[in-house]
Amino acid sequence: MPNSDDFRIKRIHGMLLEMARGNFFYSLEPSEENDNISSLIVMLNMVNEEIRASFVHQGFANAHHTPQCIIQLSLLMASNGSIVMVSNSTCSLLSCLPKDIIGKPVTKLMSDMSQKKWDKKVPKLLRKSRAETVLQLEFKTSEGLLLSKSCNVSVFQTLDGTGQKILLDTVFFTKGEPFGKGMMKNTLMVTKGTKDHKVPMSQGDIQIIRDVHDMIINNLEKDLPKLKELALQMGTN
Fold first, then answer.
1. Are 236 and 209 in contact (CB under 8 A)?
2. Is 170 exposed, middle or buried (0-12, 13-18, 19+ CB in 10 A)?
3. What is the pLDDT of residues 131-174, one digit of tens each?
4. Which among 48, 47, 43, 16 has a CA at the least distance from the CA of 30?
5. What is the dihedral of CA 20, 24, 29, 31, to 10 degrees?
């Protein structure tokens, strides 16, 4: 069997395991092939959708690993780049208060490389009444970490006649990995020259915690193992 077929069979196997766990939000992308495996993928997706529609609203579906897109970083700026509004989640993410951000240039929150990227791209957007682009930017937290993320930058005219505004936001996935494993790794990096910093958990650590959560919830009738035994069972210290 060709390697491509082996890969598709493994994906089908993974989907069946997810369905067995009660995760009916898992689906496979249809391939361009026109064979029995492709037909099987289509039918599995249909079955999965039927089960989800039948059970999720009755509380039987396990939605613990359902991907949830939540905007955690959102900034509204004047045309000169000074921040006029900030969301609470942004303050939590950057570990600062609104008063520490509002009124300051957004570039003060960025790394040197991102500042240069911003100064080069945004003036071109401001030449139009409405414009939109995506920039890979690094934001500095008060703990000496760099948060790297693709951000949507929109320029628009306000209806109250106050001129142009700039909206910057980005979406984080708080549950699951809808676009493949490893996408969330290296999101946080230690800023160079920082001595004291908090080391963030990796995506693997977070997944272990979720797996422990699922194991406890699904085995409430059993006694919990000791901490050392649990760690060995989950493959961690």
1. no
2. buried
3. 899 899 999 887 778 888 889 999 999 888 778 999 999 876 55
4. 43
5. 50
